[in-house]
Amino acid sequence: CLVWQMVKMTLLSNINLKACPFLVRMLQSGEDLEALLKLPPEKLLMRWVNYHLEQAGHKKRITNFGPDLKDSDVYCTLLKQIDPERLATTTILSNSDLLARAAYVVQQGGRLQSEFHIQPLDIVKANEKLNLGFLAALFNASPGLDPPVEEELKLMAELPEEEDAGDSREERAFRMWLNSLGIETYVNNLYD
C-alpha cells in the first residue's frame, strides 16, 4: 500500500496547473480557474481523458479508471488524439477480442515512451490502480494539449505562487498525513 502511494505520488506529481499550464485548456464553460486549481490530480487526469474524447467526437466519457477502460475503446481514441506522430489508430476496435485490443494499447503506450508498464490482462480485468498509473504515464509522455493562449496566461498570472499559500504549516502537514493513509479520496483542502 505504501509502495503504491509513492508510485502514485510520483506519477501524479506533474498533473497540476502549475507544472502543466496547458491544463487550462480544459476549463469548462462557466468554470473559473480556482475551481480547476482545486481539483485533485486524479480528477484532472479523468478530465484530460474526457477532454480528448470530446475533441475526437466520441460519445463515451469515463467516470472511473476500471470498468470504463476495460474494452480499450477509450484508450484507442485517447492514443489517436495524443500521438504526436499520428500513428495510433482505432482500427483495432473492429476486433472483438478484448485482450488483442489491450495488447495494441500497451504497444502504442510503449511507443509513446510511457514509463509505466501495464499488461494487457490488467486492462481487461479493469485494474483501477494500474490503469490510473498507465494513464498518468501517457499524460506525462504526451499530453496532447495546445499551449494556453494569452488570455489564459493572464488568468494564470493571477494565481497565488504556492498551491498551499493560504494554509498553515500544520494544515499542510495534516493533509499530507491524511493522503499518506491510502484513502480513496485525495484531500487537498481540509475545509471543503
Describe this entry's structure for a reader.
It is a single chain. By secondary structure, the protein is mostly helical. It has one domain: Actin-binding Protein, T-fimbrin, domain 1 (Orthogonal Bundle), CATH 1.10.418.10. Helix content is 49%, strand content 0%. It contains nine helices and no strands. The chain has helices spanning 2-12, 33-38, 41-55, 73-82, 98-111, 120-124, 128-141, 150-157, 169-180. The two termini are 26 Å apart. The model has no long low-confidence stretch (mean pLDDT 85).
Keywords:
192 residues; mainly alpha; Actin-binding Protein, T-fimbrin, domain 1; 49% helix
Break the fold down into its secondary structure elements and pairings.
Layout: H1 2-12, H2 33-38, H3 41-55, H4 73-82, H5 98-111, H6 120-124, H7 128-141, H8 150-157, H9 169-180
Domain Calponin-homology (CH): 39-143
GO cellular component, one term: actin filament bundle
GO molecular function, one term: actin filament binding
